[in-house]
Amino acid sequence: MALLDKADQVDVQSAASPQHECWHEMRESLGHKVVAVFDEGGPAEGSQSHTAIVLAALKAAIQGHCTNRAQASGITNAVLVAWLRNMSPSQQTQTFRPQLMQAISQADLTPTGAVQVVEAALQCLQTNPAASLHALPVLKPALASLLLDNTPIQRPDEMEEDVTMTAQEYQALVVRKVCRCAWRAQHIPNFLAFVGGLKLPDQLSIILKKATSACIQAEAVDLPKVVEHIFCISSTGPKAEALQAVVDLVDALDAAAAAKSKDERQQLCLYEGQILQWLRNKLPTNADLCQAWLKQLKGRATSYSAFMLSVLLIMSEALNRLQQPVMDLLQALMTSSFQADQQMQQSAWLASLPTISGPRGADLETALLTCVSNSTTCPVAEQGWGLLPRPMISFAVAQLEKGSVKAGELADALSGEEESATAAAAAPHVAAVLLGIKLLVASFAASPGMRESLLREVQGKLVGVKEEVALPFVAVLSILVHRHPQAVLQHANLLKAALDRFAFMTPTTALGVLVALQPLALLRKHIQAYMVGPSGVLRRALFSRGVAARLVAVRGLLYMIIQQLRTMDEGEAEDAMEADPELSCSQSLPASQQPSMSAGSGGVTLLHELMGLMRRSLTQQAPIRAALYQGVHAILAADPSVQESVLELLLPHFELFVQAEGPPLRLDACACLQDDAVIVLEPVDLLLTCVRQVLVLAQPRDRQVPDSIVGMADGDTTPSILRPAAEASQEASPDQTLQRRFSSLRHRLLSCELADFGMDRDAEWALTSPQGALRHTQAGLLLGCLEVMIEDVVAEATGSSGSATAQTTGQQLGRLLELHDSLSSMASEGKHAKPKKAGEGPTQSHTQKRSRAAASKATQNSSTEPNRHASVSNMDKRAPALSVSCLCHLLNAVLDDGLVVDSEALASSLTRAEVEEAETAGTDSQASTHAELARSPATQTFILQTCLRLLHSCEPCAAQHAVVIGTARDLANRAVAKQLLAPPDWGRLAAPLIRVAHTIVQTTSSVNKGRTKGKSPAGEKLPLLAVQCLEALLTLGRTAQGVTEVLQDVPLAEDHVPVASDAGASAAGQVISEHLPLLHQMLQTLLQAGRGREAEAMAHALAFIGGLLPPALQQSISRTALEVCQNADTQVTHAGASKALISLHLSTAGTQDMEACMRVSKAVEHVLGVDEDPRTQAQHLQVTSKTGGATASNLFMHLEALLHAIDWLLTGLAKMPSSSPSGTSTNSSHGQLREACYQRLNSLAEVLSVGVACSLKGPPSEQIIKLLVTTYRLLKSATLLIKAPQKAQQSPPSAAFQSMVTTVHQQLTPSVYTFIFDASTHEDEEDQNQAPNAEKKARKAKKEGKQIGLLVKAIEEWEFNLIKLTRSCGINLMRHAKKSTNRDFRMTFKEVPESEPVEEEAQKEDVQDQSTAEEEGQASDQAKRSKVAAAQDEEVSE
Fold first, then answer.
1. Radius of gyration (Cα) for the chain, nearest Å?
2. How many Å apart are CA 1060 and CA 113, to the nearest integer?
3. Which of the listed residues 846, 882, 957, 1419 has the most CB atoms within 10 Å of its CB?
């Protein structure tokens, strides 16, 4: 050691002098001694460290041998090799590293010595991972010296044999060995720095894979530095792989951090934000990297993480030209994932298989919401996550714009709280809209700086777009107001700007915006003043030229008035509870403390607003008056104190349409003609409904409120309208006066005839004439008035004194029903009649055009006709004036044998069974009037028709109103909106209507029973009406939960046996399963009675329910349909019923769908094919020659859906990177999915082989050709799926694949070619029998030729791939294919050569000779082709 210290003090310049030669020898011997020290096991304890000895020896060797390269290199090599081999784990210090690097840089290593140093360094890394800090700096210059010399390298391999390679090859080998070494977490940046300086693009994938796997254990603080090194590595290679490696690395760290603490996860999130910020600065100069990565992602089949989606959004933010491609990629990703979810839910077969890997809608939704929540954790833009809100908002807006969801679909999706709305469970376009709504709401909460921009986006999408696009943004606005009212109020200027465009929105959108913003009006007075103040938007909308804007303004003002009353009620309730703490919240306030419009300054304002609104609305168009009439009842229910003011306005308006002489109603003042167009001036039926409701609410509170407005005040029986004016003016209260007028109108309607209104069968009823259209409109208004009176009579009969007046109300109800039935019959019979005066006036078509043009002009241009609205009443679609409560009473009357029991006839009344027995015996029964009405088929028909019209009237408006109601997030607001804006509460009809329908169906008779020639028995339409009502009820339910609400109140029989459901079934599924036997029983009863049309409607209803149920419950419906079809006692002759039953059996078969398809296919073959097996006679499923074509078409439609599911699965399997080079599957689930596809295609081939053997004509023939083309294309895809890549050994196909190929060869393909030949022959015969039509023949031949050509091409392509697979796997997959059959396809058309006219007998002989020659030629051609096919078989077998 002393010698080393002494040598270290020698001057470099004097070292070259001769007197210092002894020092050269001393340094050389010292170098060898250092090596010997290492070889002997290292220095003794207490001596200098290894690194100090190495540094001293290297310095001595380099400084002393500057002129002798060989000696210095030898000493340096020996010292470094010995040091690396003997370094202990404790020799980890950074003190000597700069000196060591300096010493190595000054050394001049030979190639052999450099190889020795490299091998020693590799050995050090493999045996001592802790020494990487010292081994890597030695390794890098050694490799650099080898590349600089560029001489062949001799290195020993594992077999102790010298191997010669180039420096570049040796460097790649070293890199692979370094990647196989263990990388410690703290040394990962050093390894990446070493590899990054080597510039090895060929080894990039290996390096990135090692870096990703090693960095999982790295510290979070080193993550940004690691990412920089990874991008440095890829500077000379494909950068897209580096970016993907970074994403995979972060995903792995996120997965590992799931089990860590919250602080550690937040720390990792911060460093991820730094990576995003670094990428934001790096990507603008690497556009090629972005484009390459986007191209790589388009074919990606794996899931997308939150960080990957964040990188995509950052990319769209960094490069403007990539913004649209990124958005398109994300939208396509969301659409495909949601479609995959829907496909898995709709197909019972796919649901029973293992889940295929790939992005799922729920996972993507979670990842995007995680991005938004991370922006809350790191809100600063410099942290990276803060850059996401802007592109996230753009993506969410694009999702809402692209969705184009219908109002009803959005209402179903947002029926509950938005948190419970699962995007993956909805249709793809609905799921996209739900996702956009959630992202906008989450972005608003997470990013305060982006709230103004978000609200501007929402505001801009409310005007100038379709209603389907605007409604989701209305839902966003309502949710934001409900959750963050104070934050939304900070941008009140944007809300006011949206309200300024109120008149330009669609009616539904405008109502939705109004209901959504109403809670803010209660928080800020200036918002309320801007909405309903003297110069507010609603006031201005009242003076708009458009009728729609004024209609929305009236409804909006009524809604705001009721909400202000409710707010006053809540405030006064709080004050009352403060004054009396013992007052319960469930107790109502005293009458003196209830809110009133006339109490206080605020109340006066509300009263004045209401009166001003009513005065103006009563002078406007009919739709505006109708909206006012519908809202007055809600106003009086909220504040009964204003009834006198309301009655004062209604009384003079009511008297305008009631007259003392002649007919009771002035129908000419309610509807008229202008320019041959019918204009409704007054909805008098709605006016009478409003008057009746007001009079009911106007009764004193201290006594029971009557349900009917009957009788005269103070016992006076003289109608007040017939009294002198002086006597009538003495009446003090407006309610008594209006009550007299209404009672008088009811009695006069009971005593009048239809001829008094000009309604008789000799009048003009043709809808094609102006007078006929006017009469239909007036008849519709009169029918509505009669229905109002029917409701009043029903209310009286079901009231407290109903038993005492049962006889009177029964007679009145019968008279009103008689008038209603007569008028309806006249209108229905006369609407298709020809005009009375066909020669006068314009032609019918010209009249219709002028009527439509005038009606449209009157509707849109209110300045020309401010008080009129165009309308022509349609009797079948007219909404009834009867309320839901009245219909419930009438339905219960049918069940309970009358509305009320007559006390006088109670002793003599008989039961229904006794009455029927008496009628059968020919005796008179002493039943009450109400009982007779309830048993009357005419009354039951009226009740069911009214219920059906009510349900149908709810269908077009229920969806839009549900969206409007859905914007009211508060339950109290929702109740008010439902009362004013929604259709009637049809759900209350469910229980009594289903009970009546079941009773009618169970008591129905056969179609031919009681039928006389030319006349149908009474009540013939009742079963059909009952089933149609049931179908309409279930359809309005729309969802499983809605159908459950329809069925849950229906009572079940004591011996009822419900369908067994799974233990894990939902509550909705259990309720539906309990009621399925009831519906099954109705279907069986209808078929046994021969009611085909009714059974068809019932089957459609069951099919709708089946689509909402899980597969286990679906199969019970399918079994019922199968039992009905196989029942020998049931004869289904109705084509529609047969088709509906077969469709029901197929659509609800669940996992047994292939068995059902085979069953139906054999039934079709039995009718349309050649079936000599007598055992199939009992399994024909009620399919006849009349219904065979429709059944085959239905079967092929179902098979098309099954093929679509197989295609989707094969496409997903082709994208999955889970196949080995030999073509076998390395993933167990992947192999199971393959086998399932083969088995499915095998079963499908068996079904098609039976179907193609039938004699099909027309559309079924075209359908099966398309199915066959798709089937053979899928067979080709399945074959390519197991094909090994080039230069790889092909594994033999599985047994399932070989079985599928055998089935197709033996059963399907020969039948297909026979079908093609028979079809071409049949076409030739048809062409000969039909009249010559060259153009039609050419079109048909071209179409058929194209389809058949595609089919033959698909078959040949599949067989070509089978032959290639046969050669590679060594198994003859074509051994069952008959080449003589497969290749012997030729379409033959018999052509008669043109010749001069000859005698008939000679012409027949020529034709026979020609046919014989053709047959001989075909036979010879057949023999030649057989020989060629045999040769091909031998070649394939070899």
1. 45
2. 83
3. 882
Q: If you average pLDDT over every residue of the chain, what do you get?
A: 74
Tokens of 1105: 């329910």
Relative orientation angle of helices 971-981 and 507-523, to the nearest 10 degrees: 140
Of these ranges, 5-14, 83-92, 580-589, 706-715, the one predicted with the greatest mean pLDDT is 83-92
Cβ burial 1248-1265 (10 Å sphere, 16+ → b, else e): bbbbbbbbbeeebbbbbb
Sequence-distant (≥ 6) Cβ neighbours of residue 164 within 8 angstroms: 152, 153, 154
In DSSP terms, 678 is beta-bridged to 673
At 236, which amino acid appears?
Answer: T
Give per-residue pLDDT as tens, 310-320: 999 998 888 88
Instruction: List strand residue ranges (DSSP E) for 666-785, in order.
Output: 671-674, 677-680
Paired tokens of 318: 């960094």
CA atoms of 380 and 374, how far apart (whole Å): 11
Sort 1045 into a burial class: Cβ within 10 Å, 0-12 / 13-18 / 19+: middle
In this predicted structure, which of 1113-1127, 1154-1168, 1319-1333 has the lowest mean pLDDT? 1319-1333
Here the tokens at position 13 are 């310049």
- The DSSP result for 1136-1154, as a single string, is HHHHHHHHHHHHT-GGGHH
Q: Residue 35: name the closest of 68, 70, 84, 2 by CA.
A: 84
Helical (H) or strand (E) element with 654: helix 643-655
Tokens of 1059: 């369908």
Rounded CA gap, 764 and 877, in Å? 21
DSSP class of residue 1304 equals I
How many of the other CB atoms lie within 10 Å of CB of 118? 27
Q: In this structure, are residues 909 and 947 in contact, taking their beta carbons and an 8 Å threshold?
A: no
| Longest pairwise C-alpha distance within the chain | 156
Rounded Cα distance between 80 and 66, Å, is 18
- Whether the CB-CB separation of 1196 and 1244 falls below 8 Å is answered with no
The pTM score is 0.79
Query: 282-341 pLDDT, tens per residue?
Result: 888 888 888 888 888 876 667 788 888 999 999 888 888 888 999 998 988 888 888 888
Using DSSP bridges, classify how beta strands 677-680 and 153-156 pair: parallel, antiparallel or unpaired. unpaired
**CA neighbor of 745 nearest in space, from 648, 686, 658, 670:** 658
**Which 8-state DSSP code applies to residue 1012?**
B
Strands (E), 868-986: 869-870
Nearest to 516 by CA among 533, 498, 503: 498
Structure tokens at 696: 């009911």
Tokens of 422: 């699962």
CB contact at 8 A, 1073 and 1113:
yes
| Helix, strand, coil abundance in the chain, percent, nearest 5 | 70, 0, 30
Buried b (16+ CB within 10 A) or exposed e, 912-933: eeebeeeeeeeeebebbbbbbb
Under 8 Å between Cβ of 1101 and 1079: yes
Query: What's the rounded Cα separation, in Å, for the pair 830 and 990?
Result: 34
> How many Å apart are CA 143 and CA 154, to the nearest integer?
14
Rounded Cα distance between 313 and 1432, Å, is: 58
| pLDDT over 90 (residue 714) | no
User: What tokens appear for 1416 in the block?
Assistant: 């001989």
Say if residue 48's pLDDT is above 50: no
**DSSP alpha helices (H): ranges in 110-187?**
111-127, 132-149, 167-180
117 and 123 Cβ atoms separated by less than 8 Å = no
> What distance in Å separates the CA atoms of residue 504 and residue 462, rounded to the nearest whole number?
9
* Rounded Cα gap, residues 997 and 1016, in angstroms: 20
Look up residue 786 and give its two tokens. 């009669």
Nearest CA to 966 out of 399, 421, 493, 521 is that of 421
Q: How far apart are CA 584 and CA 582, in angstroms?
A: 6
Go through 859-873 and write b for each residue having 16 or more CB atoms within 10 A of its CB, e for each that does not: beebeebeebbbbbb
